[in-house]
Design brief:
This is Co-chaperone DjlA N-terminal domain-containing protein. It comes from Salegentibacter maritimus. This protein is mostly helical. The protein has one domain. Helices cover about 65% and strands about 0% of the residues. The two termini are about 20 Å apart. The N terminus is likely disordered.
Length: about 140
């Protein structure tokens, strides 16, 4: 999925996306290996092709999603904190959230939640909050 050439997704954008995906995975207070594997697969297959932005080392900016996710997993903030960080960013940068980006966010979050034995109550609750946020 390519986005408009006029839209430039920054490291900060991908950082906040990583924070959101951590919120989904950590919503039940346990980040499982299956959730991490799903995230890494989708970053490589779906997020890297979104645009051609790279960091100063030539690495695709989309990998910032994984870097931030891993850091958060090690430091274990609450899922609610992470979700609110993303929510605040989306409010301030609503122009970056095109229909295609919203769809990709939803598909990734849904896949992460479903990756280990289906979706549990905490994940369903977090997904419903995301659905409402993305509809705005």
């Amino acid at each position: 999925m390519k986005i408009s050439k006029k839209t430039i997704l920054t490291e900060d954008f991908y950082t906040k996306i990583g924070i959101l995906f951590y919120a989904i995975a950590a919503s039940d207070k346990v980040v499982r290996a299956e959730e991490i594997n799903t995230l890494k697969k989708l970053v490589k297959e779906q997020w890297v092709p979104v645009d051609s932005a790279t960091d100063m080392y030539g690495t695709d900016e989309a990998y910032q999603i994984e870097i931030v996710f891993d850091w958060l997993q090690e430091n274990a903030p609450t899922a609610d904190w992470a979700f609110n960080e993303f929510k605040d960013y989306k409010k301030e940068h609503h122009q970056l959230f095109t229909q295609n980006i919203k769809q990709l966010i939803w598909e990734t979050a849904d896949a992460i939640a479903a990756s280990f034995a289906g979706k549990n109550k905490a994940e369903l609750l977090m997904l419903s909050k995301l659905k409402i946020l993305l509809s705005r």
